Amino acid sequence: MNIIKPPLLKTGDTIGIISPSGAMEDKTNLERAIDFFENRGFHIKLSQNIYSKKRYLAGDDDVRANELNQMFADNSVNAIIALRGGYGAIRIIDKIDYELIRNNPKIFCGYSDITVLNAMILKRAGLKTYSGPMILSDFGSENICEFTINKFFETVMEDKFDYKGHFWGGNLSSLVSLCGIDFVPDFKFDFFIEDLNEPVYKIDKMLTQLSKISEFKKNINSIYVGEFLDIDNSDWLDEVLCEFSENLDIPLYKNFPASHSDKKATIPYGD
User: How far apart are CA 107 and CA 54, in angstroms?
Assistant: First the structure.
């Protein structure tokens, strides 16, 4: 696959903020994030559903999918950052216009539930995206992490990243929710993972489930382990990860800067 690379971000560009998953609970962090970017010389455009709520979702599926499509179609928008994760991305993957995205490449960034969109945009549109900080949890945080911010701008403005490889993966539980769909890359990739609030036996089950996919087994080059927060037994996790790498005969690297914590890198997804 020939991966499409979006243009780098420049000062003065417009950043679109979309809400394709969970609903916003408090707009304070959104307001802080808008101030953060505007003070750095960027313009902001909000999706129409940014304040919408249907149960735990940021509006109806059709609305959330349409807002994502519209942000890619809007020539005035240079980059797109997700408001938050939560849940809901998997509900819209068949409503996304991947040809539109392919023809209008731009930076797309998020993690957690947004992993679903990272994976599907890469698979169906061939666009390199970014697994990285989001509006509410990071750019609008009251105690913003300097590492996270610096790495974001280094990656999306200067095309710098501290690791070599073709990275694919993200939030493990979100990624595994795609099993049953054609979502695994058809090229060799370096698998990175992180998660939170998952007991080790579930992490074991999710890794085992992925390892049964023939395309996954064929194309995985290595595994890069980010943070697994609030797990029940760190020794068991180490054992499970070692067994996974040994069974697939691939190298394992720890302390990769993928995380649900405030400190995270912006990881090129698919490149």
Answer: 27
In the chain, list all ranges with CATH 3.50.30.60. Answer: 167-253
Give pLDDT tens digits along the chain (271 positions): 689 999 999 999 999 999 999 999 889 999 999 999 999 999 999 999 999 999 999 999 999 999 999 999 999 999 999 999 999 999 999 999 999 999 999 999 999 999 999 999 999 999 999 999 999 999 999 999 999 999 999 999 999 999 999 999 999 999 999 999 999 999 999 999 999 999 999 999 999 999 999 999 999 999 999 999 999 999 999 999 999 999 999 999 999 999 999 999 999 999 8
**b/e per residue 168-191 (b: at least 16 CB within 10 A):** bbbbbbbbbbbeeeebbbeeebbb
> Cα separation of 244 and 265, whole Å?
24
Query: Distance from first CA to last CA of the chain, Å, rounded?
Result: 11
224 residue type, one letter: Y
167-253 belongs to which homologous superfamily?
LD-carboxypeptidase A C-terminal domain-like (3.50.30.60)
- Residue 110 token pair: 């998020």
What's the CATH class of domain 14-161? alpha beta
Q: CA-to-CA distance for 82 and 62, rounded, in angstroms?
A: 17
